[in-house]
Amino acid sequence: MDLSTFSWLVAVISLFLIILLITFKWLIKEIREVCYELLGYVKLNQLILTGVTVLIFLAIFVNTWLYPTKVEKIDLFLTVIVGFLGTMIGYFFKEGMLERIEKERREKTTKHLEITEMLKERLKKYRGERSQLQEK
Fold this sequence. Notes:
Number of strands: 0
Structural class: mainly alpha
Low-confidence stretches: none
Radius of gyration: 28 Å
Distance between the termini: 96 Å
């Protein structure tokens, strides 16, 4: 490998690493913002699954590009069926799961607020009894 080819290779790799670092910084910022939301962790899981799906697609695309093979009809048919099944499952979890999580969160929040109010009342009662005992 001569010097000009090597310098081009170093320049391309350096540019790729800079873009990767900027993207990684942006990705971490977005993940933190998503997790502050009400249902953030569910959205984070969806983001991770979507990212994995895109990475798998890119790997298959690059593999097909580098090593071209004959595509058969059954492969296309099965791919379409799996895609439709994935879409149906994703739609089911999107609607049902998020509603259930929201309902459970409301129930837990209500329960915690009730317990907090009960403890505040007991604390007031205890402080009142304690102040009465100190006055005697």
